[in-house]
Amino acid sequence: MSEEQADRMIENVIGQIGIPVGVATNFVVNGREVLVPMATEEPSVVAAASNIARMARELGGITTTTSEPLMQAQIQLLDIADPHGARARLIESADEILALANAQDPKLVEIGGGARDIRVRILPRSEGGSHVVVHLIVDVADAMGANAVNTMAEAVAPRLAELAGGRPLLRILTNLADLRLVRARLAIPPGALGGGQVVDDMLAGAMLAVDDPYRAATHNKGIMNGISAVVLATGNDTRAVEAGAHSYAARDGQYRALSRFERDESGSLVATLELPMAVGLVGGATKTHPAARAAVEITEVKSAAELGEIVCAVGLAQNVAAVRALAAEGIQRGHMGLHARNVAIGAGATASEVDAVASALVADGRVRADIAEGIIGELRAER
Ligand SMILES: CC(C)(COP(=O)([O-])OP(=O)([O-])OC[C@H]1O[C@@H](n2cnc3c(N)ncnc32)[C@H](O)[C@@H]1OP(=O)([O-])[O-])[C@@H](O)C(=O)NCCC(=O)NCCSC(=O)C[C@@](C)(O)CC(=O)[O-]
Ligand SMILES: NC(=O)C1=CN([C@@H]2O[C@H](COP(=O)(O)OP(=O)(O)OC[C@H]3O[C@@H](n4cnc5c(N)ncnc54)[C@H](OP(=O)(O)O)[C@@H]3O)[C@@H](O)[C@H]2O)C=CC1
């Protein structure tokens, strides 16, 4: 990206930060071979996703589905005397509200998207009384959709307030995009994972993440290692997807694992993942960032829905990789093995020394800066 492009993208630009983009291999998603670009600063993430994608191939790869691209804007209404009466009046006028919303974005309507429905929620308010919140549900087609739905929300808010007999306050999308869900499923025979005991231990480890928020946070971080990397590489909004994922993980009142691990009747591990996925192929930085455009081209996806499904597939593979390592040899062997090059660089290894120092660290088994410094000293003394 040129300095000029960067300067137009955000404010007060003083530079750019480079994040490596790796390509995850071996993915078969819904029967199609896919190469997946991943932008991440963390070693072993690309390798781990590729590793499980490879194992999943034996039973057909990863299968995904998606719901319609429905985003929701919230319009908060205040000072309403009769919340239930207001709710009824708003629903009675739904057609008028949807038409008003659609008038804001003729292009979106033309391509088959647009406002679809409204929902009126009456919620208990912590300080007494109730909140009245209207959800405007919009099919955003191939956009992430925040700007599109926010524009509609601001346009319909005065009329909603008039109908409800109050005043509008917040008018903004919700990142808990629970009407725009993606799902992924994979199955791996026990032999590929290291045997039946490893599968049993993966199930036990994954179940802790269902029941314990302390473990769930880390389990879901492993999922997001994959998800955020693809979202970032394709120029999408990582914070929006992360907010959606974590709020969905807490949807029943307790923060839980986003994925589930089971054994099927043949003994294979079956892993599934479901989460909101607000990603686009148009809008935001997706079209303006040249690297993001190139990343999307690599995936060969034709719609935002298809991109979201691939993101979900990578999140699931990433999660299974981490849980397999944790249940088998522990995370440090694979992760620190690939992290060794960073440790070597941090300890002062030059470009020509990095690989030798990293290999020596892995062979030593102690991937530490002080050990790396010692190895560098030995290498230089030998010269
Ligand atoms: C790291 C591996 C893959 C090694 O795995 P391995 O079996 O020791 O290595 P391998 O050399 O036999 O490679 C196996 C496959 O992995 C891939 N692979 C292997 N190395 C590379 C590489 N350099 N470049 C590209 N791809 C690589 C590649 O697909 C390869 O097969 P191939 O295609 O060659 O036939 C394995 O140990 C693993 O999957 N570990 C998990 C690592 C992980 O999850 N890292 C994420 C960071 S840790 C974290 O942040 C999350 C966590 C753990 O806290 C989440 C949680 O708690 O749930
Ligand atoms: N809480 C959050 O997550 C928030 C996020 N954001 C930011 O909003 C941005 C994303 O908003 P978004 O609405 O996607 O961006 P844009 O408004 O840039 O893009 C959406 C618009 O693109 C046009 N368009 C052209 N082709 C298509 C197509 N095939 N499918 C859908 N729309 C199409 C549409 O109409 P038209 O041509 O008429 O514009 C549509 O309104 C991101 O940068 C995000 O960071 C902003 C606020 C809050």
Automatic annotation (TrEMBL):
<protein>
    <recommendedName>
        <fullName>3-hydroxy-3-methylglutaryl coenzyme A reductase</fullName>
        <ecNumber>1.1.1.88</ecNumber>
    </recommendedName>
</protein>
<comment type="pathway">
    <text>Metabolic intermediate metabolism; (R)-mevalonate degradation; (S)-3-hydroxy-3-methylglutaryl-CoA from (R)-mevalonate: step 1/1.</text>
</comment>
<keyword id="KW-0520">NAD</keyword>
<dbReference type="Pfam" id="PF00368">
    <property type="entry name" value="HMG-CoA_red"/>
</dbReference>
<dbReference type="InterPro" id="IPR002202">
    <property type="entry name" value="HMG_CoA_Rdtase"/>
</dbReference>
<comment type="similarity">
    <text>Belongs to the HMG-CoA reductase family.</text>
</comment>
<dbReference type="InterPro" id="IPR023074">
    <property type="entry name" value="HMG_CoA_Rdtase_cat_sf"/>
</dbReference>
<dbReference type="InterPro" id="IPR023076">
    <property type="entry name" value="HMG_CoA_Rdtase_CS"/>
</dbReference>
<dbReference type="InterPro" id="IPR009023">
    <property type="entry name" value="HMG_CoA_Rdtase_NAD(P)-bd_sf"/>
</dbReference>
<dbReference type="GO" id="GO:0004420">
    <property type="term" value="F:hydroxymethylglutaryl-CoA reductase (NADPH) activity"/>
</dbReference>
<dbReference type="InterPro" id="IPR004553">
    <property type="entry name" value="HMG_CoA_Rdtase_bac-typ"/>
</dbReference>
<dbReference type="GO" id="GO:0015936">
    <property type="term" value="P:coenzyme A metabolic process"/>
</dbReference>
<dbReference type="GO" id="GO:0140643">
    <property type="term" value="F:hydroxymethylglutaryl-CoA reductase (NADH) activity"/>
</dbReference>
<dbReference type="InterPro" id="IPR009029">
    <property type="entry name" value="HMG_CoA_Rdtase_sub-bd_dom_sf"/>
</dbReference>
<keyword id="KW-0560">Oxidoreductase</keyword>
